[in-house]
Amino acid sequence: MDIVLLSRLQFAFTVSFHYIFPPLTIGLGIIIAYLETKYYFTKKPIFAKACQFWVKIFVLNFAIGVASGIVMEFQFGTNWASYSRFVGDVFGSALAAEGIFAFFLESGFLAVVAFGRQMVHAGFYLFSVYMVAMGSIFSAIWIVVANSWQQTPAGHHVVNIMREGTLPDGSTGMIPWVVDGVLQRRAEIVNFVEMVFNHSTVYRLSHVLLGCLAVGAFHVLSISAYYMLKGKHPEFARHSFNGALIMAFVASLGLGINGHFQAQNVYEYQPVKMAAYEGHFETGRGDLHLIGWPNGEEERVDYAIGIPGGLSFLLFDDITFSKPVVGLDRFKKEDQPPLVISFFSWRAMVGLGSLMILLTGLGLFYNWRGNLKEKRWLLWCFVFAIGFVMVANHSGWISAEVGRQPWTVNPPVTWDETGEDLVVGADGKVEYNEAEGLRTENSISAAVTPAEALTSLILFVILYIALTAVWIFVLDRKIRTGPVPLGPDEVHDDAYGMRQATIDKQHARLSSDDDEKGGAV
Amino acid sequence: MSPEILCIIWFIILNVLLIGYAILDGFDLGVGIVHPFAAKTDTERRLVMNSIGPLWDGNEVWLVTFGGALFAMFPNAYASIFSAFYLPFVLLLFALIFRAVSLEFRSKRTSGAWRSFWDFLFFLGSTLSALLFGVAVGALMQGLNISELGDYQGTLLDMVTPFSLLVGLFTVALLAMHGSIYLYLKTEGELQERLHGWMWGTFYVYLAFFVVVTLYSTILVDASLKHFTDYPILWLVPMLNVLAIANIPRAISQHRPFYAFISSSCTIAALVFLFSAALYPNLLPATNNPDYAITIFNAASSPLTQKIGLIIVAIGMPLVLSYTILIYWTFRGKVELGEDSY
Question: Which phi and psi angles does B332 have, rounded to 5°?
Fold first, then answer.
């Protein structure tokens, strides 16, 4: 198989696996910070116990997140050496900043949060919880900065790499480096602040963080809805569910609003991506396809049902539903992203995102009416929703990354003076400045053979499938065991009934049985 | 600041990061290497794992930051080295994953088979990591056959030389000793007594490897002493190293394990220093054509990026050091099993 394809498959597979975990820890980190703050000020033990339970889940996810995250950092060098040489000056800086500012903070204070509750003062524990939440958010910032720079590069210039050589006059000096007739170039930072706040960073970062909040909140909703359905840990489940429901609704709604503006930003800086998302072949009125199958050969969307002019409305807030939208016809075939993946991943994200708003809205409505517990079907929806939220998150990334193809560093497009159409060449197609970007096919490692890449890909697939299985198995056990029940002397909450106290005693006995069999479970 | 000075400063910072990683994650890996042998019962094994439980992932961040800094400051070296060691580094990643997940998963079930399985993976992951780090160090000292662009042109077997394998085993022995001393510090009672024997055993193995590797590299690997004639002051480092090594058995006999630990940390620092001194100014020496070598000067990022990096380090490093000290202080003393333990 082709080395480019193998390297892409491996990157896509390993990053998809990795990205299961960071959103969980970022989202949970914020929830844990909220619970611990509540505990610090109210001293109600229910919050401490809830916090302890979520910390255990956090730690489990964090360990796999760290281990699979190192894989990502190494892969830029192992599989994408040419890319690394081209972007290292810019992209590497963001990665290094991530290590220093985010990972040390997160992993250091996680030690206190996970193992040190009995060892440190309550105030310091609360502080550590905040630091972990902050560290996880920082890590999202730097990696999204780096990725956004690939999408909409700014604050840099692409220059010839200079090497020592013989000048025309015969003396030694710095001359452009040419290998096998190819002039070697790379991107270098000119303005760090502009690089960090490039055209898409703010939109994309807020979208990613809201996505993480949604994953964290739906994760909590899933587990607490399950407990509510099974009548387990009622006090814990009620507190967790109510808090997480509000958070999930706010995050889902925020994703929708932010996503709207982000889409407008994508159209401005990467119009071909938007055209691929919507299967918009011909420049002109943009239709919104709710369903359909993009037919690249015939350049139309088959079986389409949609809103005529809907895309024009969304992109330009145009109530006439008619403003022209630049289509795929402005781009050469070799400059277009893969159509079908872009089209469907985009639809999956938007569609599932809309369902998230609907589901949390319904949940809030019934909760306000006070009869949510009777709507068992709705609670079951919450139990399984987390899976779909994760699919939505992944689809968003797939559409962002596949839509950037065939580039790893996307060169800019130029709009004409009306701002409504692109500047095109003689053949009516956009002429990208190849020197300003880097194609994916030119980004790989020359030192790696297809056989090596295939070997590593197969090994990663086997390892990650096994890890996923063990992770789900262990997580499932954790959830079934549930939060450590409150001891009788810790029960202050009136809602905490007689029956629950009995259940708790039983739990305590069961877990002491476990202890005799070999300790912590 | 001239561009050359910036490159040298960054070379030193990378060394500091590498030394930090080798000392800190070094004892985690060492603990994993001796884990199944030194600890017999389940409680003992839990003690061993919990002795590094709160610390290992923070220690691993030194590697992540080292990688990020190499990527940012010497992108050509990062690209060439990482793609040259393709399969070894993939295996290294697997080993690090095994280590991480076995710590996390082992305590989640009580069954004996479950726990033995993760004990084995913990051992395998730690040992393999140490071995591969050593092999990479040995191979880098000897240099690789690379193209003008810096892409590796040999095969996997070309880099597995007697010398690189020897350095790999040497690293395993070094970290096993370092980890045993660390465990001795953190444990009590019967387990600690058994570790006393392990400290001595691993020390002698390490000493034997040290003598062999030193002889091998000074006689057969040209790079190792190339700067010593120009800068005789460098002889101070191997001399201090020998003193540090000699101090390990002395401190053990005097029942001052903390001094032994400091000494083994010093010998790790000295060895990393000697490795960098052997490379300097190269990051990846080329065996086929010295002009193709990737040096800290021709692989460097632009001076502006290196300066931005220095600002990031100036802000970040004091923070990192303060919370590293804070965390080690919080978890000082003997390891105990509590309800939050693995």
Answer: -70, 170
pLDDT at A486 over 60: no
- Give, to the nearest 10 degrees, the angle between helix B112-142 and helix B3-38: 150
Do residues A163 and B291 make contact, with C-beta atoms less than 8 angstroms apart?
Answer: no
Contact list in B for residue A88 (CB cut-off 8 A) is 71-72, 74-76, 78-79, 301
Q: Which residues of A touch B341 (CB under 8 A)?
A: 115, 520
Which strand (E) or helix (H) includes residue A182? strand A182-183
Report CB contact under 8 Å: A467, B312: no
**Chain B contact present for A451, CB below 8 A:** no
Question: Which of A76, A108, A118 lies closest to B327 in CB terms?
Answer: A108
3-state secondary structure of A236: helix
Q: CA B98 to CA B222: how far, in whole Å?
A: 36
* 3-class DSSP state of B160: coil
- Shortest distance between the Cα of A170 and any Cα of chain B, in A, equals 19
Instruction: Tell me if A118 and B60 make a contact (CB, 8 A cut-off).
Output: no
Integer CA distances (angstroms), B215 to B8, B163, B211, B225, B325, in order: 29, 11, 6, 12, 37
Residue among A497, A26, A493 at smallest CA distance from A239: A493
- The answer to whether B69 and B14 have CB atoms below 8 angstroms apart is yes
Asked whether B327 and B53 are in contact (CB, 8 A), the reply is no
Q: Based on the number of CB atoms within 10 Å of its own CB, is A364 exposed (0-12), middle (13-18) or buried (19 or more)?
A: middle
- Cα-to-chain-centroid distance, residue A91: 18
**CA angle, residues B87, B88, B91, in degrees to nearest 5:** 85
**Would the CA dihedral through A22, A129, A487, A492 be positive or negative?**
negative
Neighbours of B142 (CB within 10 A): 18
Task: Provide the greatest CA pair distance for chain A.
Answer: 95
Q: Give the span between the Cα atoms of B203 and B336, in whole angstroms.
A: 27
Q: What pLDDT band is residue A71 in, cutting at 50, 70 and 90? A: very high
Q: What is the pLDDT of residues B248-261, one digit of tens each?
A: 889 888 888 899 99
**CB proximity under 8 Å: A 457-516 to B:** 459-460, 463, 467, 470, 474, 477-478, 484, 514
Closest Cβ–Cβ partner in A111, A190, A517 for B54: A111
Check A64 against B298: CB less than 8 A apart: no
Q: From the DSSP assignment, how many helices (H) and strands (E) are in chain A? A: 16, 12
Output phi, psi for A407, to 5 deg: -110, 150
Taking only the tens place, the pLDDT of each residue in A193-225 is 999 999 899 999 999 999 999 999 999 999 989
Please name the residue that has the structure tokens 């999930």: A248
User: Side chain identity at B260, as an amino acid letter?
Assistant: A
Q: At what angle do helices B162-186 and B236-253 cross, to 10 degrees?
A: 40
Q: How sure is the predictor about A491, in pLDDT bands with cuts at 50, 70 and 90?
A: very low
Structure token pair of residue B333: 């003393």
Alpha-carbon distance A231 to A156, whole Å? 58
A positions 115-154 inside 8 Å of B (CB): 115-120, 131
Q: Which helix (H) or strand (E) element contains residue A451?
A: helix A450-481
Give the nearest chain A residue to B86 (CA atoms).
Answer: A78
For residue A143, what are its two tokens? 């990696």
pLDDT mean over B115-119 = 91
pLDDT at A495 over 70: no
Instruction: Return the closest-CA partner of residue A270 out of A82, A395, A90, A409.
Output: A409
pLDDT at residue A333 greater than cutoff 70: yes
- Give the whole-angstrom CA distance, residue B167 versus residue B135: 6
Closest-CA residue of A relative to B311 is: A97
Indicate whether A466 pLDDT > 80: yes
pLDDT of residue A497 exceeding 80: no
pLDDT at residue A492 tops 50: no
Name the E strands within chain B. Answer: 282-284, 294-295
